[in-house]
């Protein structure tokens, strides 16, 4: 009997020591936090806000689990669940990041397309102004020319919004410029139709 | 004889049932409807764009919901002894209550924000419409340069954000549009304020009266043009003969400063030439002696003061004429009448007659009225 106890004691001591050595899964935790940061950098907080919020909550839960285990007597610490949460958070972060990147690209593509449509509308208006007469009949077009110049200048705002990756603003600006560009073109065509009724004449002093 | 064993068997069976019954009382699942209700709150918070519009509140909610849901999914907390408190269920109920409050609060805030956005967008749209109408009515569009387009774009953006349910941005864009519209009104008031200025009005009235007196004294015809009302009045021997509507330069509401500005000059002029058929492209024309001495003095002064660019010329060939193209609404700076009225005027006036072009003849002129209305509207915005 004594022999058996003597043999088992080192084993039990070893098991106790091993259990006492349980440490937080630092590598997995770091990886999860890094993946979360990368998801955030990819625009997840904007483009996949709901998923990102849940991801942050998962990481918070993981940290809480680590803290809970840290607070226990060394022999009873078990970081298995924390490790599981960390692995899961990392995997989810990667998915959310991929989704955010995709949505951001879609938003960018939408903004660039809207920008192009707006540019074309302004270009049409500019071409119409260029085709207008320069003689006395330009009176009918002077106010519209101001509008076209202002529209041309406003195209920069779309680019600024795109540069700032504010694609919703770029889309809204593009739509506004496109609509206004079309209205100005219609007004120009109307004015040019009137001018066309008159005869061309040489510029005069006024 | 065999009754005793049967009875004891039944007793054992009954005891077994009681034991099973007691054990089954230990197993108590979390009410699934509670979990579903919290899940619905989550979905509704997402539908209200809580992650974007109230990130802190939503983060607080999911920080609790994510681990609790994980606990519900793992079976650890689902079995308890009857004497044990069900902490998971209690926590879920607390979250349900808290989430419900957050949802109600956000819903209310969202409605308030939507209402505010709607009001602000409608207000700037109405203001833009009113301003455009007033500006067109007084031919003041050139005065504002590119500003009308800038405000129009902001108003359109505000509407666009509102339609996308992005109420915060709609409010911001509407605020910017409101500011841009106020700047426009202020610019109009600064540029055209003389139409509402008593001193200017008195000076124009005096000029018109001198012209009428000249007509009486010289037993001749004379003309007074009021730019604000866009009316030409013919006098003979000091008496009013007839009034005609006129069209002015494309920037006619302003005082002429240099060649090509599209403004119609203000001052006292003489008819230096009468151009009949074949001598003008505008049906009939009465040539004025613009620029006169006063105009030249103002021009030189304007250059000295930096109001007029040094490269600009003073311009000339200002006339009262008929129309070459009936559809044209404006001139490059002349005073234009319909041909029938121009014909009648041409027959009646003499070369050398005085023509006074003034801003306005009364304080309640069209421009002053438009400015007052814009001012009142601006205060509301």
Shape, principal axes of CA atoms of chain A: rod-shaped
Output the helix-strand order of chain A.
Answer: HHHHHHH
Domains of chain B, number: 3
Fraction of residues in helix of chain A: over 70%
Query: What is the overall pLDDT average of chain B?
Result: 88
Structural class of chain B: alpha+beta
Identify the strand order in the major beta sheet of chain B: 3-2-1-8-4-5-6-7
- Major sheet of chain A: none
Q: What is CATH's topology name of the largest domain in chain B?
A: L,D-transpeptidase catalytic domain-like
CATH class of the largest domain in chain B: Mainly Beta
Structure description:
The complex is a heterodimer of chains A (206) and B (381). Chain A is mainly α. Chain A folds into 2 domains: 25-103; 105-195, no CATH class. Chain A is 79% helix and 0% strand. Chain A is built from 7 helices and no strands. Chain A has helices spanning 2-20, 26-41, 44-47, 49-70, 80-130, 142-163, 167-195. Chain B has 3 domains: 15-109, no CATH class; 119-194, no CATH class; 198-362, L,D-transpeptidase catalytic domain-like (Beta Barrel). Chain B has 11 helices and 8 strands. In chain B, strand 2 (231-236) and strand 3 form a beta hairpin. The longest helix of chain B is centred in the N-terminal third of the chain and has 51 residues, at 87-137. The model of chain B is unreliable at 17-25 (pLDDT under 50). The chains are: A mainly alpha (206), B alpha+beta (381).
List keywords for this structure.
heterodimer, A: about 210 residues, mainly alpha, 2 domains, B: about 375 residues, alpha+beta, L,D-transpeptidase catalytic domain-like, 3 domains, eight-stranded mixed beta sheet, 11 helices
Topology:
The complex is a heterodimer of chains A (206) and B (381).
Chain A: H1 2-20, H2 26-41, H3 44-47, H4 49-70, H5 80-130, H6 142-163, H7 167-195
Chain B: H1 3-26, H2 32-47, H3 50-53, H4 55-73, H5 87-137, H6 147-163, H7 167-192, H8 198-217, E1 221-226, E2 231-236, E3 239-245, E4 267-275, E5 285-288, H9 293-305, E6 319-321, E7 335-336, H10 339-348, E8 354-358, H11 366-380
Parallel strand pairs in B: 1-8, 6-7
Antiparallel strand pairs in B: 1-2, 2-3, 4-5, 4-8, 5-6
Helix pairs in contact in B: 2-4, 2-5, 4-5, 5-6, 5-7, 5-11, 6-7, 7-11
């Amino acid at each position: 009997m004594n022999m058996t106890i003597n043999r088992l004691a080192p084993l039990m001591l070893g098991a106790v020591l091993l259990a006492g050595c349980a440490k937080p899964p630092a590598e997995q935790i770091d990886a999860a936090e890094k993946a979360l940061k990368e998801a955030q950098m990819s625009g997840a907080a904007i483009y996949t806000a709901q998923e990102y919020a849940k991801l942050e909550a998962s990481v918070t839960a993981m940290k809480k689990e680590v803290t809970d285990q840290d607070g226990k007597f060394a022999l009873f610490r078990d970081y298995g669940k924390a490790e599981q949460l960390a692995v899961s958070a990392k995997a989810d972060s990667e998915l959310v990041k991929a989704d955010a990147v995709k949505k951001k690209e879609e938003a960018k593509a939408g903004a660039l397309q809207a920008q192009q449509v707006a540019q074309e509308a302004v270009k049409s208006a500019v071409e119409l102004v260029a085709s207008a007469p320069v003689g006395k009949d330009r009176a009918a077009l002077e106010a519209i020319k101001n509008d076209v110049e202002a529209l041309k200048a406003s195209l920069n705002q779309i680019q600024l919004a795109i540069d700032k990756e504010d694609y919703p603003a770029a889309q809204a600006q593009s739509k506004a410029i496109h609509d206004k560009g079309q209205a100005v073109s219609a007004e120009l065509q109307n004015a040019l139709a009137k001018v066309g009724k008159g005869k061309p004449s040489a510029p005069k002093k006024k | 004889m065999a009754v005793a064993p049967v009875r004891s068997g039944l007793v054992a069976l009954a005891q077994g049932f009681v034991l099973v019954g007691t054990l089954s009382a230990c197993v108590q699942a979390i009410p699934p409807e509670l979990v579903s209700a919290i899940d619905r709150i989550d979905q509704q918070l997402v539908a209200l764009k809580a992650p974007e519009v109230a990130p802190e509140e939503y983060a607080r909610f999911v920080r609790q919901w994510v681990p609790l849901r994980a606990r519900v999914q793992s079976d650890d907390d689902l079995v308890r002894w009857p004497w044990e408190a069900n902490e998971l269920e209690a926590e879920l109920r607390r979250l349900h209550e808290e989430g419900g409050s957050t949802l109600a609060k956000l819903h209310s805030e969202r409605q308030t924000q939507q209402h505010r956005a709607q009001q602000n967008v409608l207000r700037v749209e109405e203001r833009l419409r009113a301003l455009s109408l007033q500006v067109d009515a007084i031919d003041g569009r050139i005065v504002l340069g590119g500003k009308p387009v800038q405000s129009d774009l902001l108003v359109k953006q505000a509407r666009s954000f509102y339609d996308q349910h992005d109420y915060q941005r709609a409010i911001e864009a509407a605020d910017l549009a409101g500011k841009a519209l106020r700047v426009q009104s202020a610019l109009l008031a600064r540029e055209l304020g003389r139409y509402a200025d008593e001193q200017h009005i008195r000076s124009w009235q005096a000029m018109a009266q001198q012209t009428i007196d000249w007509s009486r004294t010289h037993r001749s015809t004379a003309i007074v043009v009021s730019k604000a009302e866009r009316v030409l009045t013919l006098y003979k021997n000091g008496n009013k003969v007839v009034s005609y509507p006129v069209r002015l330069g494309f920037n006619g509401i302003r005082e002429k400063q240099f060649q090509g500005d599209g403004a119609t000059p203000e001052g006292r002029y003489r008819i230096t030439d009468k151009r009949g058929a074949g001598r003008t492209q505008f049906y009939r024309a009465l040539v004025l002696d613009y620029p006169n001495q006063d105009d030249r003095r103002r021009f030189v002064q304007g250059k000295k003061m930096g109001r007029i660019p040094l490269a600009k010329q003073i311009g000339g060939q200002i006339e009262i004429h008929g129309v070459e193209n009936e559809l044209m609404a404006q001139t490059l700076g002349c005073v234009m009448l319909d041909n029938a009225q121009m014909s009648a005027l041409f027959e009646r006036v003499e070369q050398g007659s005085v023509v006074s072009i003034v801003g306005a003849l009364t304080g309640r002129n069209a421009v002053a009225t438009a400015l007052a209305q814009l001012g009142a509207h601006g205060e509301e915005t």
